[in-house]
Please model this.
Amino acid sequence: MTRPGGVWRNWGRSESVRPQRVEFPRTVAAVQRAVVAAAAQRLPVKAVGAGHSFTGIAVAPGVLLELDDLTGLVSVDVERGRVTLLAGTRLHQIPRLLAPYGLAMENLGDIDRQSIAGAISTGTHGTGARFGGIAAQVVGATLVTASGDLLRVGEDENPEMLPAVALGLGALGILVEVTLQCVPAFVLHAVERPESLDDVLRTLEDRVAAEDHFEFYWFPHTDRAMTKTNTRLPESAPRHPLPPVGRWIDDTLVGSGLHQVACTTGRAVPALVPAINRLSAKVWGDREFTDASARVFATSRSVRFREMEYALPAGNVRPAFQALRALVDERGWRIGFPVEVRFAAADDRWLSTAHDRASGYIAVHRYWREDPTEYFEAVEEIMLRFDGRPHWGKMHTIGADILRARYPRFDDFVALRERLDPERLFRNAYLERVLGG
Ligand SMILES: Cc1cc2nc3c(=O)[nH]c(=O)nc-3n(C[C@H](O)[C@H](O)[C@H](O)COP(=O)(O)OP(=O)(O)OC[C@H]3O[C@@H](n4cnc5c(N)ncnc54)[C@H](O)[C@@H]3O)c2cc1C
Model:
């Protein structure tokens, strides 16, 4: 991730930095030493995961800690279905680690390239009105604090800090271990269909309530949506996975290869975008399969893009989406990437975008070589009107003044940060903006 020449760049190519020093700690003790050394030199220090945040949340101008050598299983509590992982463990490594114990993660997002610490720290989520984001699965964590000491948080130690530490924006310390509440391994029956957008919107609330995991993508400039409906089944249910060739054709050739061609063509000749989107809506996603949960939740995303995503009270999703649709019609932009709509249960994490309210998410994307500013700013205005909270890892322009009013526990988080990191050892410009100093 850190390139020769010492420049770090994020996946979306929206952020980069040349840190003063990059370290690759292999042990918890090495993380402690790195934090103490940075503090002695008055250099800010920050861990990064996979660099998949689109915001500057992971930017580390001082000491950058890459935790790719701090991965794997620490312990398993088979009886309670809990596992403790080293913080740098990537999500795609976890199914293999859990398999011997018959366990799985309860829910996942669209991809599995992120580190577990990075994913929970920004509130990464999937879809499903009865299921929370990944941070809601956290029942314990160990943190290296600004003093270099270890702080354990969980049911038995410092339980009052768990709702902050489980989704801490990287602002409270360096996570070295994360304990997850898992569920018995399960399979998912997936149905992916192109449908009429109006039909989807008309039946939205019912489908979200009735299905385990429902989401849809809308292709701007068309009246089509691609729906994804995943139903949870016991692990013993017969599996009908996509054959490897079919998966390759759908995910790599259609999902990525043709999409790459579509994006490049749409950028060169914007007038073609509506026709390309109509074609995409036809060829993308008409399939049904049953497979291990992690293989169904996670897909690959090889066409680079930038993204903004807002969480709304679930009941506001439909009107906000309609306003967004009208905006795209009015403004004459040519948007080649779909709009994604997902749902999640309320949770108790202080800075969760779903804190204390059942939520729906609306995400907009743009090809990384196109300037997203005008589109994203106009969409952001709509999302703020509908009581939106921005995803911490996806592009937005909001600062602490607005965020404070949208998170009832915002000041509690800021107070805990003040206690754990009074000198702001874990600071960067993004945290200054969203937390107010
Ligand atoms: C292609 C793509 C698909 C995506 N899909 C989804 C999705 O489906 N749902 C969703 O909600 N989001 C999604 N995201 C956003 C992504 O999940 C988040 O931005 C996530 O934080 C990225 O994890 P990471 O490991 O790359 O973390 P990074 O971006 O590297 O870091 C994120 C934050 O975590 C902190 N951090 C990392 N490690 C530690 C540690 N050990 N201790 C303390 N803090 C730490 C960093 O300092 C930073 O503040 C997607 C992003 C991309 C690029």
